[in-house]
Amino acid sequence: MLAELFWERYADQLPFQVGGMEMAAVPLVAGILMTAARKGYNINGFVIHKERKKYGRMNAIEGDVSDAPIVLVDDIFNSGASVEQARVVLAEIDRTIWKVWSVIDYGSRTGIDWQKRHGISVASVYSLGDFGLKLSSPKSVAAQLSFLVRWVNKAASTNHHYVVPKSAPRARNGLIYFGTDSGEMRCVDGASGETRWNFKIAAGKHKGIWSTPHVTPEFVFFGGYDGNLYALCAESGREIWRYVEPDWIGSSPAYAADLNLVFIGVEYASPTRGGGVAAIDAKTGQKVWELPVRCYVHGSPVYAADASLVLCGTNDGELLALDARTGALRWRFQTTGAIKHAPALDPARRQVVFGSFDGGIRGVSLDSGEQKFCIQTGNAVYTTPLIDGARAYCGSTDKYLYVIDLVTGEGIAKIGAHAKIFSSPSRIGRWIWFGSTNGRVRAIDPETFALAGVFQLPDAITSAVEFDPVNQMLIVASTANRLYGISVTPPLAPAQTPGGQPRVDVTALELARLVVDAIVNRTPLPDPEKYRLAGTLPQGGVFVSLRNRTTMQRIGRGGQWTFDAANSSLEMSVIVAATKACANLTADSLRDANASVSLFGPLEHTTLEALSHEKFGIVVRATAGAKLGGALPNSPEYSNERGQYLHALRNAKIAEWEGHTLYRHTVERQAEIPGWPVYGAPFPYEEPELTRFVSRLLDPQQHDRPEHFGSDFTDRLSAVAVTRHANSAKTFTTALLSITGAANPA
């Protein structure tokens, strides 16, 4: 009957062809074609897979698609999601949809918008009203984002055999780095999508580079299924070294700048040597240590700098915690399924969160390996959780994204994707982003869990969505080895604070000014949760200098180095440095001050021979103990590299013969311009305990303030932090306490 109704509408509009999206459209297309044959109509038909086949010819479309106009048929037309997927798949072969015919049209707003956006009309046999029904209230939508593909970068060949997590793109300084199944590590211009350089390895038939690269200012580290770990020059793609001992590497590297080590999971063909976790010298490519395990290690390691641990899962279901310097086993946690993706660190609660093929999402103690919670999903978990404040987001192949309260260990929500999730979630702007095997990229509002936007690509998305801040684009890789640069409208909004208010974008200099203002006015220091750094980020740390406005004589300075930017609050680093710069100054002297802020690029392990006192700042860090100090470039206090090095040693109070590590970093300076207002703008007063602490900073003579920060500073701050913890509030004081306990202040 339905086929007859179709032909009553369209018989006089021949020639055309009929297609549909599996599964519901399969009987419709078949019935329409069979009826056409009986009526003597010569018509072509085809079916589009929801997910491309992984065997045989690995087709996305079954049947030939001719040049004739296309009528797409479906059982229902609601949001337009399935016909949008069909439209995108057909666009890959330069075909467009002429008309859409459905059995029931729900008349939804999103469906109507889809028709208007693409200029495609929808006809139907029935509407909901024909059955006495009406559409229920639409699902909550946080914001309607629109997307535009700016460029596509295609690899030399495609491989659809494996729909699993592969090499995720990494954006750095406007360039995008990613690996392909065809064995290419590519560097792509983030603005145009043009390939800057391409490094080819000897790939196997179906697996090339599944390793997500780790990119530093100098190097690109990645593994390949040729069994090698590579270090390339980030600028040119020239090979620096390769480590050749394993037989295969599918793992992604973790990099410890403070130890000069690259950690990687490895695989062996030997029946007595399944795999291992290895540490490789980042400069030479020489193995420093390796812990062998029974099975392959497809999982990727993560480095916990404050605990000096490397954490990595294995295919026999163990999460291993290893001493980062020696490889000695600290603890192991056993699950009943393989752990094939990197764990995530939750430093606020000192726990590790990870997924397993037994369907569990677990949190275990970073210190002991004791399980804190387990959320059971309906299928294997092959993603890395996203830690966002007090929540974790983790996708499962049961087609849901799980939201977990990290304080209680309880599930908060599960968000359906209608397809398997191999794409590890990312926090970009206000939203949580992830892809799925039906080719859709979704943005979820973390406050309401409403869908903020969805974008359709022709092939499965199994890797994390990346963001290029230089070119303001989403970067998405598909399993077809295609890389997409996608702009978003409206532009990605500021991240939300826990209370739902948008974070304020500020430069590092503006944030430092807020600190000085607060100290002058004896008001609470700015809450880092309320601000977001814009522009250049101090990934390696920050140095704040205060000078008298009239004499330009320096009156205060303070710094904070960051050895693990990914797990640190850069906003807090600025607040810490600015607070220390004010430590021994009175309110009157601060009113007459102006500030400059030096932003450090990532800290790179280096040698004295590789320094340039005109180009790089340096940091020296004691091998034993907490002593460290630095020296900025272009200082009148030294005229060569050795002078800069000795100056840093003096600042760190480290003798040249003592064991220490040397780092270098780029520097960008932000300084106040003439005419900026003096400090002292009014701020609300709300925290007596914190104000008493700030009072000690304002007038060191009145309050017996020591000349330099010492244990008194830390002890005093601890009391404030405990008070605020009791109120479950996140403030600067609690954050600063965690920093002083986990990192070495400058």
What overall geometry do the principal axes of the alpha carbons give?
A: globular
Give the full name of the CATH homologous superfamily of the domain at 504-601 and 666-742.
Hypothetical protein ph0010, domain 1
So what's the CATH class of the domain at 504-601 and 666-742? Answer: Alpha Beta
How many angstroms does the end-to-end distance come to?
A: 79 Å
Uncertain regions spanning at least 5 consecutive residues:
493-500, 675-746
> What is the CA-based Rg, rounded?
29 Å
Instruction: Enter the CATH topology name of the domain at 504-601 and 666-742.
Output: Glycoprotein, Type 4 Pilin
Biggest sheet strand line-up: 3-2-1-4-5-6
The largest sheet, given as strand count, sense and whether it forms a barrel, is: 6 strands, mixed
Oligomer: single chain
How is this structure best described in words?
- With 746 residues, the protein is an alpha+beta fold.
- Helices cover 17% and strands 34% of the residues.
- Among the domains are: 2-131, Rossmann fold (3-Layer(aba) Sandwich); 341-421, Thrombin, subunit H, CATH 2.40.10.480; 504-601 and 666-742, Glycoprotein, Type 4 Pilin (2-Layer Sandwich).
- It is built from eleven helices and 48 strands.
- It has a six-stranded mixed beta sheet with strand order 3-2-1-4-5-6, with helices on both faces. Strands 7-38-37-36 form a four-stranded antiparallel beta sheet, with no helix packed on it.
- The longest helix has 16 residues, at 711-726.
- The radius of gyration is 29 Å and the shape is globular.
- The termini are far apart.
